[in-house]
Amino acid sequence: HYSPASGRYPQAIFDHGTPLALYHTKRLASPAQRIMLFANDRGCTKPGCDAPAYHSQAHHVTAWTSTGRTDITELTLACGPDNRLAEKGWTTYNNTHGHTEWLPTPHLDHGLPRTNTFHHTERILHNQDDEDNPN
């Protein structure tokens, strides 16, 4: 069961017991995980990107090569071009609200928004992500 208000994934199980934590068994996201990502992220999570969920890929927030884990809490949506930014020095992490933040390489970082609200207009009314970053 997913709670949009919490912004986090509780220990979620779909019908017929499909797990959303694949741990070290697979690198690619399962269909059940992709459905959860579609519901939670709604599209690419990189700030400034308007790519919808159906044009996005499952992206490991922490590189799979580092953790070897494919858990729903370690996945987010990223369109193809933004997914490849990880290979160019960009990093991602989940903030305290469970939203994915994108950090550019230091020479590109100009203090721009780190989360994408394009697919989540409800966040604009109460931008809780700004509370995480006092700058």
From TrEMBL:
Residues 32-84 form the HNH nuclease domain. The keyword Lyase does not apply. One of its GO terms (molecular function) is endonuclease activity. Keywords: Endonuclease, Hydrolase, Nuclease. It comes from the Bacteria. The keyword Nucleotide-binding does not apply. Signal peptide: none annotated. InterPro entries: HNH_nuc. This is HNH endonuclease. It comes from Siccibacter turicensis. The lineage of its organism: Bacteria, Pseudomonadati, Pseudomonadota, Gammaproteobacteria, Enterobacterales.
